[in-house]
Amino acid sequence: MNNMSSLKQSLPAQDYDRTTELKAFEQSKAGVKGLVDSGIQTLPRIFIRPADELAAEQNYAQSNLQVPVIDLGEKSDTITSELKRASKDWGFFQVVNHGISLDVLDGMLDGIKKFHEQDAEAKKLFCSSDRAQRVKYGSNVDLYRSRAANWRDTLTISLGDADRLEPDMLPEICRDSAIKYINEVTKLGETLFELLSEALGLQPDHLGAIAECIPGGRTFVGHYYPACPEPDLTMGTSTHTDPSFLTILLQDQIGGLQVLHENQYINIQPLAGSLVVNIGDMLQIISNDEFISPEHRVLANRAGPRISVAGFFSGVASTDKVYGPIKELLSENSPARYKEFTVREYISKFFTRPIDKSGLDEFNLQD
């Protein structure tokens, strides 16, 4: 019996060996899409959330609130004011009139979809769990640490400390679209760092100089969430905060992204031509809680596939540069709330904890 077939069969509870099933899933190198293609009608046990997590869903209120939508074509003082409010109150917002064409956005979504829907053997060429590999395909970075696997596959493109990747490092099927998109979103990231600097009362180049995400320090992940037979039992992506300064997300029209706001999960409705931006843990830390890095998640869905591309501006892990609350934001009434750290230290802790555990607690200064 092959690995995929063994995952399709539901074992009696007393015979369930989670580690064995996780290994079978990992060794298949076919990802979640491979399970769907094999014809499963029920979720393999490794994807089913624990009973306490499922029960806890009842504690969250439902709301029709919407995250702020910010028009980057407005006057600069209006944009700065709106960004400050959104980053402080929500940590999430959508941007329109951001300067990236629909052709580039749609091309990236189509390229990621084509990558994940190509022949399994072609994808396996990029299959790796090696953190040092710049371009790789896989499913669930925290597969053995999380309480339940997530219903998604991912193509990761990491620029590390380089300003660009050699084109032949990228999968041919999405190479051109990825290069165009990464270049355009990098420019948008520079603009947002400048605007957010001004929102904090700093010089426009302040955050960009601290973060050093450009030219290097960027990672792009192309997620593929197949249609799920039992979406209420699992998650597309578990609740988490982002280990970045800033994240820029492109999503299709399926929906499912939610942000936790005042104990309510708020649906971030897809808005054609927009991009979703959220504050990451590292920006919350260096802003000394002026901006917040909120918990968010992606629901599994009977409809699909859902395609999204997250661009993480995280800084260069190889540097020994020390980060901490920005001195200009501190005062007697607003002392530092976090320890200093390097990106290497932060990323190391990220890869040794489940995705649903925030990195903020690791560096919080106790009273």
Give an account of the 3D structure.
It is a single chain. The chain is an alpha+beta fold and 367 residues long. It is 31% helix and 19% strand. The protein has helices at residues 3-8, 18-28, 31-37, 51-56, 76-89, 102-117, 120-124, 175-199, 206-211, 281-286, 343-350, 360-363; strands at residues 61-62, 69-71, 92-96, 135-138, 153-158, 218-225, 235-240, 246-251, 257-261, 264-267, 275-279, 296-299, 306-313, 322-323, 341-342. The strands form 3 sheets. Strands 2-3-11-8-13-6-5-4 form an 8-stranded mixed β-sheet. A 5-stranded mixed β-sheet has the order 1-10-9-12-7, with no helix packed on it. It has a two-stranded antiparallel ribbon with strand order 14-15. β2 (69-71), α5 and β3 (92-96) form a beta-alpha-beta unit. α5 (76-89) crosses α8 (175-199) and α6 (102-117) crosses α8 (175-199). Residues 215-315 form the Fe2OG dioxygenase domain.
Topology:
Elements: H1 3-8, H2 18-28, H3 31-37, H4 51-56, E1 61-62, E2 69-71, H5 76-89, E3 92-96, H6 102-117, H7 120-124, E4 135-138, E5 153-158, H8 175-199, H9 206-211, E6 218-225, E7 235-240, E8 246-251, E9 257-261, E10 264-267, E11 275-279, H10 281-286, E12 296-299, E13 306-313, E14 322-323, E15 341-342, H11 343-350, H12 360-363
Parallel strand pairs: 1-10, 2-3
Antiparallel strand pairs: 3-11, 4-5, 5-6, 6-13, 7-12, 8-11, 8-13, 9-10, 9-12, 14-15
Helix pairs in contact: 5-8, 6-8
